[in-house]
Amino acid sequence: MRIMIYLSLLILGLILSSCASREHVSAEYIDQIDNNVIRKQSKQTVVLFLVDGLSYATLETQLKMKNLPHIKEFFMISEPILKAHSVFPSVTYSNISSLLKEQPVHLTGAVGNKFFIKNKLKSFETLSDRLEFTNHMHGHNIFTRLAAREGRTASLDYGLGADATVSTPFDFNSGYAASQTDYRYVDRKKIDSLENLLLSTKPDYWPDFIFIHLVGIDFLSHAQGPRAADTIRQLKTIDEDLQRVFALLKRGEKNHQVISILTADHGFIQKPIKKISFERLVEQVDQKVLALNEGRFAAFYFQKTLTENELVKNAVKVLADRHIELVSFKFGSRIRIISRQNEIYFDYISPMNCSAEGLALSINGQSGVCSDQLQNEIKNEPYPFLIENLASYFKAERPPEMIVIPRRDVSFDYLGVGFHGGPTEEETIVPLLLRNATTKYSEKIPPLWEILRFIQ
After folding, report:
1. What are the pLDDT digits (tens) for 39-50?
2. Which end of the chain has fewer CB atoms < 10 Å from its terminal CB, N or C?
């Protein structure tokens, strides 16, 4: 995410003259109860705290330093912290879409913060396109799944909580606060809205699912880095501001089943980044190509169909630059991942006994295997979950023909200090904190899109 998103929301807020209060969601929810739209009690309430851009290493370090006492006590954290992993690319929209739609990328079509919607290229960070992404979220998500059985849901997010029973509207004040880098105001307003929602009804009538999206960490990590003093201060502030919400949730647990989850959509590269010219990269490939700069990776759509040899030649040209780590492309049913050191390829093969989301693959000509059941020796080569993630990425509707990933200390983006979007462990692995729930995985690190599937 970028500051452009909230600047866009600021302008949109001016257009809509919307100035949402902290009581908006709770008042709307109470109205539905009073008007008998909501009649039955809920069996359980699941609260998902999505802290955008919260790095696993940052959270782990601050917990060890005892700087987050309320998060540590509420989630009863013991070492090591559980992990989940993002989809590729490790950007906001791809992962929130996967998380809320409960599906991998090839079933959501969200192959980045920039991708085609109805054959038109759209950008998540462009004002005129923003509502397109909200519309893309409609249908086939956790909100509609629960609504189908008369479940109630709440989304404390601006635009990505499509189909929730009640949700936060676009808000001028929050947009303005973000433009002034007052991220505590932005996050605190959502936290206050959650507190008001919990206070407004008895726990038996709380929504079945509540989604709250906190964004300050992401903005500060982009601007100053994930380890910067202001970023850490924002995390400590979130810990402090959540104290009353945690107390209400604990009180509600006495007579109601309440499950709390805290996670992130992606991490951040932790070390200084070298920026290289995206324009030069495009010239190396093809000046007529449609090239998308996603910062930590580049995606290419060619105007004509290239042969496999032509794709390989492009890869070799790009890899001649020492700042480039690897190139991956799809030709027919084969995906090739080429670096200076080695090459891995895999083929999509006839369906096997895989899960509904798993893809049958043959890796380096070996026997078939399901993409979500890879052995450890291949699962993390050359980066964690890269084969699994790219298998889904290239299987999506209208993915790029080729992607280029720079070295872990390199970005194509010249703005900011912190970056994400690539496949490194720092960008891909995220924390997973649970209260009143356990993971069914003993050793497996689950993808984000699986973590809400237990909700019935």
Report:
1. 778 899 999 999
2. C
